[in-house]
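Dig into this one:

. . .
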Amino acid sequence: MAAPKKGRRTSAQSRPGRSLVLILIAIAALTGGMFLSGHTTPRLGIDLAGGTSITLKAKSEPGQENAVNQTNMNTAVGIIERRVNGLGVSEAEVQTQGNDNIIVNIPRGTNEKQAREQVGTTAQLYFRPVLATEVSGAEASASPSPSASGSASPSADQDKATSSDSSASPSSSATPSAAATSQGRPVTDALKADSTASPSASGSPSGSASAAASASASPSATSTSDTSSDLQQQYAKLDCTDPAQRAKAGDGVKPSESTVACGTNSQGQWQKYVLGPAEVEGTDVDDAKAVYDTQNAAGWKVTMEFTDAGAKKFAAITGKLAQNQSPQNQFAIVLDGEVVSDPYVSQALTGGSAEISGNFNQESAESLANVLSYGALPLSFEEQSVTTVTAALGGEQLHAGLIAGAIGLALVIIYLVVYYRGLSLIAIASLLVSAALTYTLMALLGPTIGFALNLPAVCGAIVAIGITADSFIVYFERIRDEIREGRTLRPAVERAWPRARRTILVSDFVSFLAAAVLFIVTVGKVQGFAFTLGLTTLLDVVVVFLFTKPLMTILARSKFFGSGHTWSGLDPKRLGAKPPLRRTRRVSAPVDPKEA
C-alpha cells in the first residue's frame, strides 16, 4: 500500500509546471479580453473621475401635506439608486440630507445624461380613457380639424384582429403611434397604432368636450365634472406649445378625477387631451423591458407585463373601449402628467401584457422601461441645484495614495530581500502575478458589473499587499523550520506545504469574511473598499496555490536553492540547522556465570 502512495506523490511533485501554465493562460486570457473589450483601464468613481451632483427637494402634493416623511424619503432613495444603477452608471451615490433633500452624485461616464434625466422623475403612470383630443396651439390652425365620424365595429371572431377605419381625412393631427399586444400576438392583432388622423370632436374646444360627454358606452361613466364648465375652460385655454401650461396641466388632479393633458403626435406636434379617470395604474405593471421590433417598422418599443390584478383591470378597460367610436376607443398612457402614447383598441386584451411603441429610440425606450420597472417615487421632487464635480481633489488624493502604496511596497520588497534573500524573487514574482490579475479583473468588472475604482477601493488594494506578502512569509517560514530539523530542501518544500496551506486558508478566510460583512452592512464608498479587499483575498489564494507553491517546487530542484547557497535564504548553517539525533542501542555488559 505504501508504494502506490509514494508513486502518486512523486507524480504530483514532478508536474508543478501544469499549475504555472494554467495561471499564465488565465492572465493571458484576461489581458486579451481587456484589450478586445476596449476597457484597458478600470472605471473610476466620482471622487476620481468627477461627475455631477444633483440636489432634489421633496414637495407635497395637494391633500398630502404629511407625505414628506422619513419612510417615503428612504423609499425614494432606494428607487432612485436602482434607476441610476439600472442604466449602468456605477458608484452612484444617493443619500438624504436633512428632512426633505436628496443628494445624488453621478460619476462622469456612460449613461450619465440618462441618469440625470431620471433621478427626479416621479414616474407616476396611469392608463386613462381618451374623451377628446386635438392639435394644440398655433399648429391646430395649420391643418383642418378632422371630424368625429369614426367608427369601430368589433369583429365577430374575437381571435382575429379587427380594423377600425375612420372616415376622417388624414391630417397632421395624428396621435402618437403606440400599440399593445394581446397574448403575445403581433401589434396589429388587437391594439393598432393610430397612423392616420386622430379624429376629434370639432374644431372648437367646447365642441370637443361636448362630444366627449355624448359618447355612448364610455369606459368610465362620464360624470358631471367631465362636462363641467371648468374642464371645458381648461381644455379651451390649454396651449400645449407653452411649457408653463404643459407643466400645470392636470396639476393636483387625483387619479379618480378627469383631467386635461398634453402629448406629442407622430408628426411631432403638440396634442391636447381630455382624459377620464385612471383605470390602470403604474403599480399594476409587474415588469417592463425595451425591445427592438424586427417584424414591424415601429422600431424600439417598451413591453409591459401586468400583475394579476392589473391584467384584470386592463382587460376590463380595453373591453369597454372597444365598444366606442373614436376617439373614445383610445386610452392614453400618461407618465408624470404627459401623454406618451394614445393607442386605440378593437377588442378586449386579456393576455396580461401590453406594449408601448412610437417615436422611441434605444435610449428613450430603455429610460421608460427602467422607470416603469423600478416603480414610481412616493414623492414629487424639484431640482434645487446641479453642480459639476471636478476630479482635481480626488486626483491629488489618489496621487498621494499611490505614493503611499509605492512606499509600502518598496519597504516590503526591501524586507524580503534582506531577510529572505533569494526567496524574495519568488515573493516579488508572486506579487507581480497578483497585481496583473487584480488590474485586469478591475478593468473587466467595470463594464460587466459596474464596478468603479474609488479612493477606498485603492486603499483596499494597498492593504492587500500585506495580506499577500503574509502568505509568502508563512510558507517560507514553514520551509525553514523543516530545514532546521535537518531535512534537505526538496522534502522540506513538500512537508512544509500542508502546514502552511492550512494557516494561509484560515487567515484568508477571516479576511474574506470581514470583507463580506463590511460589504453587506455598509453603503456607498465603503463598499468599494470591502469589494476590493475581498477580491484580492481570493486572488491571494489563487496565486499561492497555482504560482508560489509550484514555482517553489521547481526552484528547489535547482543547484542554487537545493545546495543551500548563502544567498538563497535557505542556508542550513545560517538557519542553525543541526544534524538529526540518532538513537543508539545501549549494549548491556555480559553477566559472568560465576557471579550468577
